[in-house]
Design brief:
globular; 3 domains; two-stranded antiparallel sheet
């Protein structure tokens, strides 16, 4: 076969493959939601002279093409297998798979960002007046992995927070958790493993004497098996996690209210939203997921203590375990409500406890907190 003929055949195969993929991508409709990744696919970018000259169109088109590619999930799985199993790399685009903690994300947090977050929390603490202020950090699960990953430096964060908040008491819960405290396919911790973390908080905050042994009063219930967000992002087979939630007479009889951030009206609800387990994010079973303000009142409380829990999503599963020790807990997510408007929405009791409890995702993103 002559060289010219080989070139013609090579070109023909290339054009046929390219054309075939083009036709296939036009024939296969892009889904409205990328279910495995729990997000919307990128839309076709707006074509104007400005977006074309700035390069925004091409960047947007690359995202659109990647999200609308036919059999996308299959190709993602092939790539992940090649990267992690064939080439034995430690991560795939910032995602790792560890024998002890399962899948996770490599998320180094810049010291400068933690300092900015600590500055915001210092402003918040000053505004709380005479409250008893406590601060704690939720370790990234990479801290308990089977090998060392370039992830979140909790000691660095502790040092910065203690410097910025000298009048607050720092509570270290690192030793109260381990690899089994987290879901294998998700970033969150497993509520059923948090007894030691509650004890660590209670020892420092002094609430363990305010009620009988909290751990013994809870009953375990299984909502079912599920996959967290990392399963879809990693695109490799993984065993499912099991969602376990804990109830007691206190959680069953609690008066729980949620603030509608659109109407600013309070509505009554349950601590566990069992219908949410079948939704996009099963972790929303705990206190309905993302909420700006929630109050939980304990009619059976043996104390008048109140707690203001400044939190992220991890505290949705922790707060029910703290309820036996308080008459009222108010959960405040400053990603969705500005601290300056809080006095118009809730009454701040001056002698209450205030706990700042954040994960690395929040400590590394100071602009997300609406404080001042």
């Amino acid at each position: 076969m002559g060289k010219k003929l080989r070139h013609i055949l090579t070109l023909s195969v290339f054009v046929a493959a390219l054309g075939g993929f083009f036709i296939l991508n036009r024939a296969v409709r892009t889904p409205d939601t990328l279910e495995a990744e729990r997000r919307q696919p990128a839309a076709f970018p707006r074509l104007t002279a400005q977006t074309l000259l700035s390069g925004d169109f091409m960047r947007g088109f690359e995202d659109f093409a990647a999200d609308s590619f036919a059999f996308r999930d299959g190709f993602r799985s092939i790539r992940a297998f090649t990267v992690l199993e064939v080439f034995r790399q430690s991560d795939k685009s910032g995602l790792y798979r560890d024998a002890l903690v399962g899948a996770g994300k490599l998320a180094p947090v810049a010291e400068s960002e933690v300092r900015r977050t600590a500055g915001k929390l210092a402003t918040l603490a000053a505004a709380l007046g005479e409250m008893n202020v406590y601060v704690s950090v939720i370790p990234d699960k990479s801290a308990y992995a089977g090998r060392e990953y370039p992830g979140f430096d909790i000691e660095m964060s502790r040092r910065i927070l203690e410097e910025a908040l000298p009048d607050a008491r720092y509570i270290d819960i690192t030793a109260a958790l381990d690899a089994g405290s987290y879901y294998k396919t998700d970033l969150h911790w497993d509520q059923s493993t948090l007894e030691a973390a509650v004890t660590a908080l209670g020892d420092e905050m002094g609430f363990l004497d305010s009620a009988s042994d909290g751990a013994s009063m809870f009953e375990r219930h299984t909502a079912g098996e599920f996959y967290g967000v990392y399963k879809g992002q990693l695109a490799l087979p993984m065993p499912p996690d099991t969602m376990i939630y804990l109830t007691s007479a206190i959680t069953e009889n609690a008066v729980t209210r949620y603030l509608d951030d659109k109407t600013l009206e309070w509505t009554a609800g349950e601590i566990y939203d069992l219908e949410a387990f079948a939704g996009r994010d099963p972790y929303d079973i705990f206190l309905r997921g993302a909420q700006a303000l929630i109050t939980m009142e304990n009619p059976e409380a043996e104390t008048a203590r109140e707690l203001y829990l400044f939190r992220d999503s991890f505290s949705s599963s922790l707060a029910p375990l703290l309820l036996p020790h308080y008459a009222k807990i108010t959960l405040i997510d400053l990603r969705y409500v500005d601290f300056r408007v809080l006095p118009s929405l809730i009454e701040l009791s001056p002698n209450a406890d205030a706990l700042f409890l954040y994960s690395s995702q929040i400590l590394g993103a100071p602009d997300i907190l609406k404080i001042g």
